[in-house]
Amino acid sequence: MIRPVLLYPDKRLRRKSTEITRFDEKLGELLDDMHDTMIDKKGVGIAAVQVGAPLRAITINIPDENGEQPLENRVEIINPTMFLCSGGVLWNEGCLSIPDFNEEIMRFERVGVTFIDRNGKERRLEAEGLLAIAIQHEIDHLNGKLFVEYLSLLKRKKFEKEWKKSRKN
Ligand code: CO
After folding, report:
1. 116: number of CA atoms within 13 Å, CB side?
2. Residue 45 CA to ligand 1 centre (angstroms)
3. How far is the CA of 59 from the centre of ligand 1 (A)?
């Protein structure tokens, strides 16, 4: 089921999400809804807090070589901890909570993360490229942080102005 996505500057996006302790049907439903919502909005990643559930759950689905995002390619990351981050790369990012706005952000090139899957099993993943970027972007959401907060003061002001204008239309 597609759920509504909270949009900037909704204060609920600033909440720090809490750890998940129950790996039940309800969690599976939330994760499925997150995936449906992400695909509907043409995103590559989404955090639970963006659909109004402040829990430490992320769904990512990096498009394959044909630009498709089949269900079996999704990566579900619950209660993540980063154990590795190295290198640096500028990446042009966007966010489903800030539609139609993209800006370059400095991120780690490689990250490693330990997490739990929907069945409560511990897992570990090392990533680079878009997957590494998406992991960092979505973990920020769990901590109430949005990518526009990394912008320089000047770019942030420009963004706020553009955003207000686009919201009026
Ligand atoms: Co986002």
Report:
1. 18
2. 7
3. 11
49 C-alpha vs ligand 1 centroid, how far in Å?
10
What is the domain partition of the chain in residue ranges?
A: 11-168
Q: Strand, helix or coil at 101?
A: strand
Known catalytic residue at 104? no
Q: Please answer whether residues 117 and 70 qualify as being in contact, where contact means their C-beta atoms are separated by less than 8 angstroms.
A: no
Q: Given pLDDT bands bounded at 50, 70 and 90, which one contains residue 168?
A: confident
Per-residue pLDDT reduced to its tens digit, 78-121 = 999 999 999 999 999 999 999 999 999 999 999 999 999 999 99
Name the residue among 108, 114, 105, 113 with its Cα closest to residue 86.
108
More confident: 56 or 167 = 56
Burial 99-134 (b: 16+ CB within 10 A, else e): eeeebebebbeebbbebbebeeeeeeeebeeebbbb
Looking at 138, 149, 160, 162, which residue is catalytic? 138
**Distance, CA 97 to ligand 1 centroid (Å)?**
6
11-168, what's its fold?
Peptide Deformylase (3.90.45)
With 90 as the cut, is the pLDDT of residue 169 above it? Answer: no
**Per-residue confidence (pLDDT) for residue 9, from 0 to 100:** 96
